[in-house]
Amino acid sequence: MNARMNATRIDSIVSLTLVSFRSIRSFPAGLDSRSAGPDGSDLDGSDLRLVQADVERSAGDPAAVAGVVDAMGDFTLDLWAQLPADQNLALSPYSISVALAMTANGARGATARAMDDVLHVSSLASYNAGLAALTQELAGLAGPVEVNGKKGEIDLAPANQLFGDASIHFQQAFLTVLAKMYGAGMSEPNSHSPENLPILLAGGGAAGFTPGRHVRFANGTPLANLNLTILNRFGIAIERLGDSSKNALATTTL
């Protein structure tokens, strides 16, 4: 099986971030259920819930970092080859690699072999240890900086969270690897409310979007209206998408 990633072709850079916080009902004994941010830190006042193994974060294996960097470089070239060279591109191979590596720890059989092939991984255990060391080394670069007399702040936020159906029993070994090597757990997407979703639309000037605004849509407006409008701006002429309104294109202003 030759597993390679297919990318959606677009004419400009568009990034959509959907955030919704609800609570997971219950968790298996021996696991830590808590409110947490994407970096694993506590979020006061948030009801985002994680199921996470209660183990200490590993420092990883610095000796394995070089192999991770080489594998990530090969993965980046494979990914780049699937994208159009004549259009604007924005991607983070590092974040994609981390997300896929976390997921690969829960894969078995042909799926696991295909994911290892995509990531150019010969030993997932070594890759986990190398990523753990690399991630924490990169995290140490964040914080206040001063360049040419000007003070600033470096903020690094790579992907390090997975989402899964709360009805599925996640094996302890899988959750332990996520917590120990990635400082991550499992969040439940099914509890996300479709109401009043905060959405960030970044870039897209070539498609005629007007940036620098806070747009409030009427209560009950389907999210599909926004997705449908974006697709049409990029030349994909369709009239309906999912539960979009009949007059979505006429009423959605971007």
Short characterization:
Helix content is 32%, strand content 13%. The chain has seven helices and eight strands, in the order βββααααβββαββαα. It is globular and about 55 Å long.
End-to-end distance: 42 Å
- Which CATH C-level class of the largest domain is it? Alpha Beta
Question: At the fourth CATH level, what is the homologous superfamily of the largest domain?
Answer: Antithrombin, subunit I, domain 2
Number of strands: 8
Describe the fold and architecture.
With 254 residues, this protein is an alpha+beta fold. It has two domains: 1-19 and 193-254, no CATH class; 20-191, 2-Layer Sandwich (Antithrombin, Chain I, domain 2). 32% of the residues lie in helices and 13% in strands. The chain has seven helices and eight strands. It has a four-stranded mixed beta sheet with strand order 2-3-7-6. The longest helix is centred in the first third of the chain and has 17 residues, at 65-81. The radius of gyration is 20 Å and the shape is globular. The protein starts with 13 loop residues before the first strand and ends with a helix. 22% of the residues are buried. Residues 1-48 have low confidence and may be disordered.
